[in-house]
């Protein structure tokens, strides 16, 4: 397998366990048709150029009198998930899910106590886990994400997301979402946009909870996937997850995933890392108006501060291109009055 098409979690483990450390345009009013109450859009966003850029773009493409008007059916907005809609430090959350799955399954696999890379996970040995290489890491992923039906896997994800806690905040992972981005999703949908997740994370890992957390239904989630096949059992047909990668929805894979799953080029795209760069480039290359935004993690107090040198969510080439092309860059420290919903 070529390196650029490695399964996402192999990349996650290789990078995240190399020692990444946590680091402690004018707005317009909205009127509710039902109540007639005027409310300020994007209340957790600071007044300034970033908020103005968002509201001005939305006005341009939704005003029928505007030369940049876009019909509602074509108002497609795509969002990365990790680091864009929810946090991704100190490691990708789905990697923590995979590690927890190894530990949960270990009693049924006594051989894992002496077999790498499982031994490394059970011993919390980061160096040994990184040393397992791509083959070992792929073995780890397939052991935890395959070999069950899609229905069984969905329930496993639901149970984990309901009980697991973030290693630093102690909060459920679904509370580690960004309040300003939740407001942005609602704001766009209120103006006729259809919002999609386009993430390198597993599509079936995200689908069980994205509608409740983001208001994005399963059919509007695009992600990496493993192969499945139909199997006839006594209780009827089931879909079984196989230990083989089907598609990696990262970097150059994102425009491919958008084309395959959505069938329309987005007019707005939101990301936070170099893995999102091709999605933003694809969006900007459309014939009509477009809007591209990068979330820049600059707040080491309320969240984490990282970009070019980070092993998780690296933003290097994307930051340069965003600056050169005039894309909108969110300075999390200054542009967001509030980061997480649970903040005062």
Question: Any overview of this molecule?
Answer:
By secondary structure, the protein is an alpha/beta fold. The protein has one domain (3-335): 3-Layer(aba) Sandwich (Rossmann fold), CATH 3.40.50.1000. It contains 14 helices and nine strands. It has helices at residues 8-16, 49-62, 93-105, 118-122, 126-131, 133-145, 150-163, 179-190, 203-206, 210-214, 253-261, 277-284, 317-325, 332-335, and strands at 30-31, 38-39, 76-79, 194-202, 221-233, 236-247, 268-271, 291-296, 328-331. It has a seven-stranded mixed β-sheet, sandwiched between helices. Helix 1 (8-16) crosses helix 6 (133-145) and helix 3 crosses helix 6. The longest helix is centred in the first third of the chain and has 14 residues, at 49-62. The radius of gyration is 21 Å and the shape is globular. 41% of the residues are buried.
Give a quick set of tags describing it:
single chain; Rossmann fold; 344 residues; 36% helix; globular; seven-stranded mixed β-sheet
**Gap from first CA to last CA:** 47 Å
Give the full name of the CATH homologous superfamily.
HAD superfamily/HAD-like
Main structural class:
alpha/beta
CATH class: Alpha Beta
The number of helical runs is: 14
Question: Radius of gyration over alpha carbons?
Answer: 21 Å
Largest sheet: number of strands, sense, barrel closure:
7 strands, mixed
Helix content: 25-40%
**What is the general shape?**
globular
Mean pLDDT: 89
Could you name the ranges where pLDDT drops below 50 across 5 or more consecutive residues?
1-11, 13-38
Number of separate strands: 9
CATH architecture: 3-Layer(aba) Sandwich
Strand order of the largest sheet: 6-5-4-3-7-8-9
Tally of discrete structural domains: 1
Order of helices and strands: HEEHEHHHHHHEHHEEHEHEHEH
- Percent range for β-strand residues: 15-25%
CATH topology: Rossmann fold
């Amino acid at each position: 397998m070529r390196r650029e098409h490695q399964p996402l979690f192999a990349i996650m483990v290789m990078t995240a366990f190399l020692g990444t450390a946590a680091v402690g345009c004018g707005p317009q009013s909205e009127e509710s048709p039902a109540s007639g109450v005027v409310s300020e859009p994007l209340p957790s966003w600071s007044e300034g150029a970033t908020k103005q850029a968002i509201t001005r773009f939305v006005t341009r493409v939704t005003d029928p009198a505007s030369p940049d008007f876009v019909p509602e059916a074509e108002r497609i907005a795509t969002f990365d998930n990790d680091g864009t809609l929810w946090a991704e430090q100190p490691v990708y959350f789905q990697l923590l899910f995979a590690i927890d799955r190894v530990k949960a399954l270990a009693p049924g696999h006594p051989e894992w106590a002496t077999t790498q890379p499982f031994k490394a996970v059970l011993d919390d040995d980061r160096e040994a886990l990184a040393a397992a290489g791509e083959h070992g890491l792929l073995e780890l992923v397939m052991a935890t994400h395959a070999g069950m039906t899609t229905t069984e896997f969905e329930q496993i994800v639901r149970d984990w997301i309901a009980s697991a806690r973030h290693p630093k905040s102690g909060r459920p992972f679904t509370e580690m979402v960004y309040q300003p981005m939740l407001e942005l999703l609602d704001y766009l949908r209120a103006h006729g946009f259809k919002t999609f997740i386009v993430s390198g994370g597993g599509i079936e890992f995200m689908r069980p909870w994205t509608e409740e957390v983001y208001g994005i239904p399963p059919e509007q989630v695009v992600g990496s996937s493993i192969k499945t096949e139909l199997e006839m059992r006594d209780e009827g047909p089931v879909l079984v997850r196989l230990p083989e990668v089907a598609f990696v929805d990262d970097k150059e894979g994102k425009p491919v995933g958008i084309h395959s799953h959505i069938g329309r080029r987005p007019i707005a795209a939101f990301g936070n890392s170099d893995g999102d760069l091709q999605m933003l480039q694809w969006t900007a290359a459309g014939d009509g108006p477009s809007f591209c935004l990068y979330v820049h993690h600059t707040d080491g107090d309320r969240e984490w501060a990282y970009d070019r040198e980070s092993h998780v969510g690296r933003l290097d080439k994307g930051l340069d291109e965003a600056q050169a092309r005039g894309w909108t860059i969110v300075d999390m420290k200054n542009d967001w009055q509030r980061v997480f919903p649970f903040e005062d």
